[in-house]
Specification:
By secondary structure, this protein is mainly beta. 1% of the residues lie in helices and 49% in strands. The chain has 1 helix and 26 strands. Strands 1-23-20-25-15-14-13 form a 7-stranded antiparallel sheet, with no helix packed on it. Strands 2-3-4-11-6-9-12 form a 7-stranded antiparallel sheet, with no helix packed on it. Strand 21 and strand 22 (216-222) form a beta hairpin. The longest helix is centred in the last third of the chain and has 4 residues, at 267-270. The termini are far apart. 42% of the residues are buried. It holds the Pfam family KduI. Keywords: Isomerase.
Length: 272
């Protein structure tokens, strides 16, 4: 089993571009997800080919222009911190495209990948089209921006969502999983979590575990860490004094999000 907790690498590609994470599927023992985080300085440029992967580019912070080799999309990005708690712009680009990202100001950009079977049209996903919702109650509250939910038709396999969890709350809780291809009861989706905290010196706890406990890891997760969830339940606990944010990427053989709650803890949902 590959490491589940991945620390930022801060690897410079050039004077203007720094790699924070570059997690290829084979490096993290996943079949359906690759994940990259870049810091691009103002006026810096990054270029790559999508190859056999579909790609969702999230303008996490800052402001960027993106080209898919045929068309250009300008002025993407709405915030300087994720903790402004407003949706941001993203763009979907299919396989076999040459992608160029140019930063108009210092920017952090997330690239979410999944192997693609077909070519699809590039599609802008503006902040205004993110569905926004609040989930949970009591100490199980979170605020959600849906970028690429399973109902969005742009992508073939990718699902992308932002989640905010206030201090003292739990998220991805009660523990749930989606690691069995058993629709309509459960879908098989791998997942990654990119975390940030406010203030940034904070931490959260995340546990990833299976019913038989053959996988059972509890991690102290710090700002800009990535947690890989190949299978199993994956709750997150946010301590007092710090607010948590994570960007989720999910992908699997079918683009359907159907999770299964751990039976021992499902009672929490319906309590008065």
């Amino acid at each position: 089993m590959a490491r589940l907790l991945n620390k930022p690498v801060h690897h410079p590609l050039s004077d203007d571009v720094q790699v924070i994470h570059d997690l290829k599927p084979e490096d993290i023992d996943l079949a359906y997800i690759g994940f990259k985080v870049l810091d691009i300085k103002s006026q810096g440029t990054y270029t790559e080919s999508t190859g056999d992967f579909e790609l969702c580019i999230v303008a996490l912070t800052g402001n960027i222009d993106v080209s898919d080799g045929e068309s250009s999309y300008e002025d993407l990005g709405t915030r300087d911190s994720v903790f402004e708690k407003i949706p941001t712009d993203s763009i979907y680009i299919s396989k076999n495209h040459e992608v160029t990202i140019k930063a108009n100001k210092d920017s952090r950009v997330v690239l979410c990948y999944s192997p693609a079977d077909e070519e699809r049209a590039t599609q802008l996903i503006p902040a205004s089209e993110n569905s926004v919702e609040d989930r949970g109650k009591y100490s199980n509250k979170r605020h959600v921006h849906n970028i690429l939910p399973d109902t969005h038709t742009a992508s073939e396999k990718l699902l992308v969502v932002e989640v905010y969890t206030d201090q003292g709350n739990w998220s991805s809780y009660p523990p749930h999983k989606h690691d069995v291809d058993n629709l309509p009861n459960e879908s098989l989706l791998e997942e990654t979590y990119y975390h940030e905290m406010n203030p940034s010196k904070g931490f959260v706890f995340q546990r990833v575990f299976t019913d038989d406990l053959s996988l059972d890891e509890t991690m102290t997760v710090e700002n800009s860490d990535v947690v890989v969830v190949p299978k199993g339940y994956h709750p997150v606990a946010v301590p007092d004094g710090y607010d948590g944010y994570y960007l989720n990427v999910m992908a699997g053989p079918k683009k359907v999000w159907k999770f299964y709650n751990q039976p021992d803890h499902e009672w929490i949902i319906d309590r008065e």
